Amino acid sequence: MSDSVPKQSLADSPARVYKVDGPFWGALKRDLLLSYRRKSDLVNPLIFFLMVATLFPLGVSPDPTFLADVAPGVVWVAALLATLLSMDSLFRSDFEDGTLEQILLSPQPLYMVVLAKVLAHWMLTGLPLTILAPVLGVMLFLPADGMWGLVLSLLLGTPTLSLVGAIGAALTVGLRKGGVLISLLVLPLYIPLLIFGSAAVQGAVTGLPLGGYLAILGAMLSLGLVMAPLAIGAALRISVSG
Amino acid sequence: MAEKKWLPRWFYQLASPRWCYEFTGKLLPLFVIAAVLLLGIGTVWALAFAPADYQQGNSFRIIYIHVPSSILAQSCYMLMAVAGAIGLIWKMKVADMVAKCCAPIGASIAVLSLATGAIWGKPTWGSWWVWDARLTSMLILFFLYLGIIALNSAIESERTAAQSTAVLALVGLVNIPIIKYSVDWWNTLHQPATFKLTERPAMPAEMWVPLLVMVIGFYCFFAVAMMLRLRNEIIQRERRSSWVRDMITG
Amino acid sequence: MSFESFAAFIDMGGHGLYVWMSYAIALVVIAVNIVNPLMQKRQIFSEQARRLRREKQS
To answer: Angle formed by the axes of helices A64-87 and A126-139, to 10°?
Structure first.
């Protein structure tokens, strides 16, 4: 796969300029390409997202006023579970075919590669979920004022979901039955995001200013961007060497 | 050229499982006596001599279990994360074992805190469970403990298990303030913290002195439980070494 | 003493059930945390002693 390698041409080779973002773009491109070739994995979390949201009116009540009340929470919980569901496969196939070991052995900064993998994961789950969310909002009678809050909070929140979930995925990558374990490890860490995410939507519905909620979600995202790749890298090294 | 040692000698010696086993063997009776005395005096004082609260009456006496166990459950997590970090950075075997032993004790203490909180809630708020901020964050702390226990038991290699749980504990440690803040913000119904480091407690001395006795007693109990588990863990892992063999046969 | 009689002490001003239940649970948790490692220790010791005997025989 020639297009999966970052372009480092031989022309400038003796004094080759080292680019930190080389491995980043390489890993990002590779992951996007790989999942493009396996399209079913791409769609599954979205279908799950839709189904969970369908279960609530069936299980609780189809009453529009009630559904409008619970819609922010339901959409956020569904997005959270859908992200979690797709988390297990983040490092699994790379671990099984040995790619992960090569990545760890390579002199490229692991931080960048990990960040690229998480970004690719977000582009394939978090972003589609965010785009799909207004449809769910309409199905659950979320007032039109709340839509912007829903989309913006998911846009800022889902990358953090991917970052935190990737820590769990990295810790369990060497284990046979990682799936359930990831949820046990990661769900408690998701709680602040759920609280502020659904509060942002609720705030948008009642017409409160959104700035504060979004600022907190953004703060969590920046903290996650700085810290999570370090933890993911450390966890991957431990899992692969063990 | 001698390396400058800025930590006392016993800290370095703690890294040796054998020395640690003997050291805890000497400490254990002291802590057992302290725990029995403090918990005994504290319980009698709390149940019989401390005055009843003018609002909550005698149900207030649950505080003497609830507050120490809540404090202990949190410090236990801190100890676990710090020991895990020491194990990760300096590859100290004993630190790994300490971190591993913390998880089950901490989980049981968190259960105690949750149970007493729920029982206290019944006469005070009228229901067993209230989704108030501090009960909820304790519940989340309990979930964090469960996650760590689950991860530790899922990984077969002891070394990998210790390292993985250390990473998870550290991630949790970063998250605990965020969780606490978010849950506090989400809902506050609970009374404010009983002990604050910066100010004198609001309750009269005859109420908080037994509480302090109970808190210290709980810490001593934790030390005892910890050392008992740690010593088992040491024997289990060092079973091939000659000193353990001599001890078992001799 | 903040109670007049033993019966009042048990009753705890109507909150006896809650107070005593809390202390009972605390006792159980403390006991489990002490007894469990002690039993574990006995098991480890007997297991290791058995292993050593077996190794000596062979």
So the answer is: 160
